[in-house]
Amino acid sequence: MISQQTGSWINKYFPITIWLKSYTKEDLNGDVFAGIITAILLVPQGIAYAMLAGLPAQVGLYASILPPAIYAFLGTSRTLSVGPVSIAAIMIASALSAPDIMALGSPVENAIILAAEGGLILLLMAALRMGGLVNFISHPVLAGFTSGAAILIILSQIPHLLGLSKNPCGVGLACYGDYLQQINWFTVGLSLFSIMLLLSFGLPLSRLLKRFDVKKNIITGISKSAPLLVIIITTILVKVYLLPEYHQVSIVGEIQSGLPKISFSFISNAEQWKTLLPSASFVAVIAYVESVAIAKVTANLTNKTIDPNQELIALGAANLATAFSGGMSVAGGFSRTMVNFSAGARTQMAMLIAVLLLSIAVMFFAEQFTSIPKAALAAVILIAIFPLVKLRGIIATWKYDKSDGIAELITLLGVLALGIEEGIALGVAITIVSYLRRTSRPHIAVVGQIKDTEHFRNIKRHQVETWKHLVLIRIDENISFANVNYIIDFIENETGNNLDLKHVVLIFSSVSHIDSTAFEALKNLITTLKNKNILLHLAEVKGPVNDKLRETNFLEQLSPGQVYFQTVDAVESLSKK
Hints:
It is built from 29 helices and eight strands. It is mainly alpha-helical. The chain folds into three domains: 341 residues, no CATH class; 51 residues, no CATH class; 131 residues, Transcription Regulator spoIIAA (2-Layer Sandwich). The chain starts with a helix and ends with a helix.
């Protein structure tokens, strides 16, 4: 019999045991339908994102089998769909195209090592309880990075849509003119057909089906089957009209059939691991942040909770699993997750069903995937990625907060001009600088009392009562080495020109911490004010701050200044003196 402590440990680290206990027939019905719909998406997306990363198709398919199954056992989100994702794919492509990494040998082996290192990094972060790391990349930086990466993805697919080789002949307009003359119009025809079909299965078809009172999950299932339908139709056209043979239309090519085989051969090359480590760190952190953000969206819609630290374990294990099974790095995919959720998924059983169906497809139908035109896959990527480009969001962020708007814009431009890793590093650096600048210049207000109340407000915003011999100053930030000089300068400026001033009250209602540097500066302020025959007082001091002050000789130095429980107490005591 399992002890209560052991049972609690199992529930914590294997969340599947929690929802399995209360699993119902209704849950199964929803999961089966959602699993089928998600499996339909896994095939084209797995191949497409492998192509986007510059890897063979089976690498994307293998990443769609074992990793989501592992996540189903360990993850705390009941609807997150883990597998290859566009953002990770473009980051992998960027890493693998670096000259020092290209020199290491096989791109597939490099991609596998990226996944393995990413998994180990996430597990190390879990051991260090770093689940809160998700909060250190601000929304503007993540939004700018996503838009920039999406633009790069779109640009990378244009050659596939036009039937061009990836690299033009050189530089200059004449070169590009010759390059564009190589456009394959049969490929363009397939691309346009694929895009039109994908678009028609979106909003237009959904609106039409709603008029016939079709159930929401059925609408989702039909509309999201468009990628598979595009793949089937264009593949048939390629085979019937022999487009690769007679019109040089590019296709996926040979795909290994059968389930992935577990291998540890990638472990031995220490030089590869060392060189790939920085790129693996970026891929792992972005994959984690993106996954948790997506998981929280669906969790909030169902009143469920996400454990960020357990997500590190689940995603770390999933990335190790993809490495051992020959796949690429994985994360939670937004489009697949929303399709999975909208189709009625109740638990991770939906993903297990999707994995089962994909495994059958890989074992018995892999040969049919070889004739998929790359133009159709590029169209699938294009339609999936285009909504991620949110340039208007930069304007909205700018209007709300210029610093955040600048961070979002520079992150986007950095990704486009410098590269994936450099762009997001630049965005994070700017956010940190902006934060330090903001905290170094905290909001400070001279306040007065609203007549006949116990409320105190900024004298620049409200009609309030003030006193010649008494000044009330409210500090709206913790006091630290970074901002204490600014605060002291503000206080001295407010007290320097008032010859009648006898008392200054610092209101600490928003101060939860005072570091040692700030503490020494405040003690010096007491002496400075006393030399001007002005007494310093404190009001509304929080418990932790008060405890720190009592552990030192601060209160003795403050005397005969007082610490008042409320600001109104200070006013009643000092306004008459």
